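Quick check before the chapter quiz. The format below is the same one you will see on the exam, so make sure you can read both the input and the output lines.
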Amino acid sequence: MDLEKFFDRVNHDVLMSRIARRIEDKRVLRLIRRYLQAGMMAEGIETARTQGTPQGGPLSPLLSNILLTDLDRELEKRGLAFCRYADDCNIYVGSARAGRRIMAQMREFLANRLKLTVNEAKSAVARPWARKFLGYSVTVHKQTRIRIAAESLARLRERVKDLCRKGRGRSLAQIISTLNPVLRGWMNYFQYSQGRRPIEELDVWVRRWLRDIIWRQWKRPWTRESRLRALGLDARRAWKSSVNGRGPWWNAGASHMTHALPPKYFARMGLVSLVDTHQRLQCSA
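Here is the expected output.
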């Protein structure tokens, strides 16, 4: 369950009433109210804020949790298992019928009690493995395991493709130095994943993109032949590979390029291995 434009639609009066339950100092309450009502700049024009919290503000996440504590207490009162982070919440029930009933009840509770709207496009009643939470999902097996959601894998692929396309005119070392922070940060976030195969496939796919760039940079058949020979291929195979007429992506995954540029070649260049990073983080956890 996801809340529609949550940080833009927080009702100030409802939020302040929740804060006032714990804070009696009216000076602090006035300061928070002024923070909520701080004007917004749009195209050089300041407009008054009548609802919502300033996005990116250090206080906004805390205020959102204060407001949604009512939702937590309601779910606890009903004895429901759930996970919530900010405005993203997964509620676990025993059947689709129960799920539809709880969804309807929570939609009404949020509208009446907190003046918030459920995002129908991002909310659904479905099996746990068909949904994602904070980029993670779970497996369909009897022994449930945490895995990286398909959408998260797709987003990383798009990010890597974008960086690689921009880097075709740069050296391999420069491209790798651009990719490494992205790969390292992504794997640090998804270190709790218990599935190894998608991470291995991503490692293979990233190296294939780098081979694609190298093949493009070699440009001419005689350049490709000489480089392949320098990287250990025999003369006949190097020549046949250099004039095969196939495109860069096909060659990047072909045996002559994987033989000439194996994983250890990129490791020596300093490329971050997602598999190795994941294994190291798992061992240190």
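If your answer matched, good. The CA atoms of residues 177 and 239 lie 31 Å apart.
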